[in-house]
Amino acid sequence: MILDIYTDARSEIVKYSRTAKNSNLSQKLIQISSVVIDEHENEFKLVEVTNTDKIKNEWDEFIGVEFKSSSTIGEMYSIYKVLGELCKLESKIDCINIYTDSLTSFFWINEIPLVRRPTQKPKCHKPNHKLVKKLNTNIISIKKTLESVGVKVNIMWVKAHCGVWGNELADSLCKKSYKEINEFNLISK
């Protein structure tokens, strides 16, 4: 079985209130989406609403560390989540092609050094960098585990918002309401 997967992520600030006194609090939610298309052109969707606190709490080393939401964290988490869900399947998968519109994620996962123009200042290593690095390490680990059992995993970049059908579908899932969906268990049926 060959699976083509398109991932996307977006963040949105949502206002909430803990008490009537503090009614102006806000939280940045991250919505991730993935669309899996099998070789018979069946579509399976994954949509999850999360935030950086939930993502970082998967690893004890980040307890108490503050992270700002970023598109790279969202996209990397989407890829991490997809690969984790696919590992749970009992069907025979020969190849997984993951298409991301995040060039930074593409470079990180494929271990390609980011090249900066001479006029750009080097970025400092902020805490977000550590979370992206942790997500990347886990993605590469899952990828190697899948490859050790004969599953080819390709991470590819696709240009955003230019009519690539799967990418547009993943993007539209991120823009819809916050209804969570996980249809990945249906892939093996």
Describe the structure.
- The protein is an alpha/beta fold.
- It has helices at 52-56, 71-87, 103-109, 127-148, 165-175, and strands spanning 2-16, 25-37, 43-50, 95-100, 152-157, 181-182.
- It has a 6-stranded mixed beta sheet.
- A hairpin with a 5-residue loop joins strand 2 (25-37) and strand 3 (43-50).
- Helix 2 (71-87) runs parallel beside helix 4.
- The two termini are 12 Å apart.
- The mean pLDDT is 78.
Largest sheet, if any? Answer: 6 strands, mixed
Structural class category: alpha/beta
Distance between the termini: 12 Å
Q: Give helix and strand order, one letter per element, not per position.
A: EEEHHEHHEHE
| Beta-strand content | 25-35%
Structural Rg: 17 Å
Tell the overall outline: globular
Name its key features.
189 residues; 5 helices; single chain; 6-stranded mixed beta sheet; 33% helix; alpha/beta
Summarize the structure.
The chain is an alpha/beta fold.
Q: Topology, pairings included?
A:
Elements: E1 2-16, E2 25-37, E3 43-50, H1 52-56, H2 71-87, E4 95-100, H3 103-109, H4 127-148, E5 152-157, H5 165-175, E6 181-182
Parallel strand pairs: 1-4, 4-5
Antiparallel strand pairs: 1-2, 2-3, 3-6
